[in-house]
Amino acid sequence: MLQGVAHINPMPESITTGQRQNDLLDDIQQYVRDLPGIVRECWRGLPDKWLFGSLAVAWSLVFLFFGSPSLGYRDLRSPSLFYWMYYAYTNPGSEDTHGLLIPFVVLGLLLWKRSELLQCPKAVWWPGLMGLAVAGGIHLLGYMMQQQRVSIIGLFLGYYSLLALVWGRAFAARCFFPFILFAFCLPVGLMVDTVTFPLRQASTDIAVGVARTFFGVEVIQDGIRILDPNGTYRYEVAAACSGLRSLIAMAALTTIYGFVVFKTPWKQWLFVFISIPFALAGNVMRLLSIILAAESMGPNAGHFVHEWFGFLTFALTLAAVLWLGRRLEDKEPARPVELAEMKEAHHAG
Amino acid sequence: MPAKNIVVLVAGLLIIALTAGGVGYYQENQRLSSPGIRCRTIHGQVAVEVLLPEILPGYESVPLEVTQEELDMLPKDTSFGRRRYTAPDGLVFDLSVVLMGGDISSIHRPQSCIPAQGWTILDEDTDTLRIDGDNGYELPFNRLKNAKTVVINEQPVKAEGYFLFWFTADGKVTASRESRLLSTAWRMLTSGEVERWGYVSLNVVFPAGAADMVYPRAEEFLKTAVPQFQLPPTDRPPRP
Fold it and tell me: Which uninterrupted H or E stretch holds B50?
């Protein structure tokens, strides 16, 4: 049976990064092939699943029938929070489409970690009930304020509390990191401009500062507008250029990367938050490229860069994050269980 | 099933039932507070007639239609008040009030609607304005500075605009959405009433570069118009 990444022994020094990447890809392919067997294994190995299932279904029913208080708005005349979330993820122009994928990603990561989860001791943990009560209170507050995002926090906190209640604290602790990804199920939606405005302002400030200081390009800044003193070009950093999509995509990728690759909690947390400066840097790089292209080759060149360099700057930023990840990965300590396995293998040899 | 699991199941279901019960109780017992806007009730309806001043010294005014899209989209208990005021030199001020019923989704963030109308938000901040009178108070409001290219006589012309907005309910005025939401939750928890918020906005459009001249005019307009349609807050600080 394939072992999850958490159980792959540390590679000897002589094995190259390329080989490790191939091994990881092979592992993933094998994992996908073995998925039906993995699911069967988990089903058999997990105790009290009917207890958890019954409580989870009951909890879901609350959010299906008493989930969303906004019954007036045209497209949202449903009491279901799930419907509200689905609408937020799929309405035209949504910046939150990834929300549909997150539950599957979390499930995939939990399956990836199944050996660890199945082996850890399981027992009823009564404080889980308190977590469930807090989750209920959060939902009630969200309902009163008519803020579905608050209720979404209550929804996922409730599922997590049920995990802790039925299978114990150790099990819940091991599930914590995949559950963090549910933060990406919170739709930005109508808040998009409020969220993006500081990003747009910061990107514009830094890009203009760098253009003036390091490249001697004396562009004029008016809020989030960048103007050429000769009037040959003028750009407005619109919401779509805020870097929000890059930030969300980057944050999701780095969180998953941190979870899969690292075992040390501080490195996992570092990779949850590291996306923010990197995504901002990527956006600044993009704006700077536009300014420099327009300055040296004219407005059409600036427009070309605007249209086509988004992917490039995202790829460069991602490469920088992965480079940092590799550097930290090299210093990743082996876990005691792995050291024991290595010793055992050594003695057997 | 072991006895311990039965206890877990019962305890878990009890908390879940309490959550559902709490939400259900809130649904059944919510009452609307009074609005912070002058309005006239319409018999048999939650929606009311918002009374914006028809006569304002120094301005000519006409009512503005609420679009069918807005009427279709927003909750049926939403009330509207909308008028255009034109100064003698042609500067136009569009004043709008959207008053919620029991559903907060009547009130939308202008940061979403303004870009949808082709405007780019250049800057946003907050400001305050002294509203004079016996019940004088400081009016806090949000200020969005916007820009758009419009076509006049087949020539692209850069236009700019100020969009000033705030929220008012029974005895309260705030520019902060967060304060509004927290106040709504607190009022609900303590008195069982839903605060009926009105979203008041003023939109003024002008040629690019005239912002410094127009902004004091917008403030002057608000000083004249606001006491005519907005009730003074009761939790205001004492007059200096």
Answer: strand B48-50
What is the Cα–Cα distance from B229 to B201, expressed in whole angstroms?
13
- Nearest neighbour of A72 by CB, restricted to B103, B181, B188: B103
* In a shared domain, residues B75 and B18: no
Question: Phi and psi of A335, rounded to 5°?
Answer: -80, 155
Q: Does A23 touch chain B (CB under 8 A)?
A: no
Same domain? For B69 and B15 the reply is no
Q: What's the CA gap between B160 and A223, in Å, rounded?
A: 13
**Chain A neighbors of B208, CB-CB under 8 A:** none
Give residue B76's domain range.
33-229
Residue B237 located in a structural domain? no
Kindly report the nearest CA distance between residue B114 and chain A, in angstroms: 10
Alpha carbons A153 and A222: distance in angstroms, whole number: 38
From the list B16, B102, B184, which residue is nearest A59 (CB)? Answer: B16
Q: Note whether B122 contacts A132, CB cutoff 8 Å.
A: no
Alpha-carbon gap, residue A131 to A157, rounded angstroms:
7
B57 & B168 share domain: yes
Give SS3 for B107: coil
Helix (H) and strand (E) counts for chain A?
A: 16, 3
Q: What's the pLDDT tens digit per position in B164-207?
A: 999 999 889 999 988 998 898 888 878 878 899 999 999 999 99
Tens digit of each residue's pLDDT (9 = 90 or more) over A267-289:
888 888 888 888 888 888 888 88
Q: Can you tell me the ipTM of this complex? A: 0.72
* Partner-chain contact B104 A194, CB within 8 Å: no
Asked whether residue B139 falls in the same domain as residue B169, the answer is yes
Alpha-carbon torsion, ordered A53, A57, A58, A61, to 10 deg: 170
Separation of alpha carbons A97 and A114, rounded Å: 28
Inter-chain CB proximity B108 and A62 less than 8 Å: no
Domain assignment present for residue B235? The answer is no
Q: Is A164 on the interface with B (CB under 8 A)?
A: no
Nearest to A62 among B20, B112, B121 (CB): B20
In this prediction the pTM is 0.71
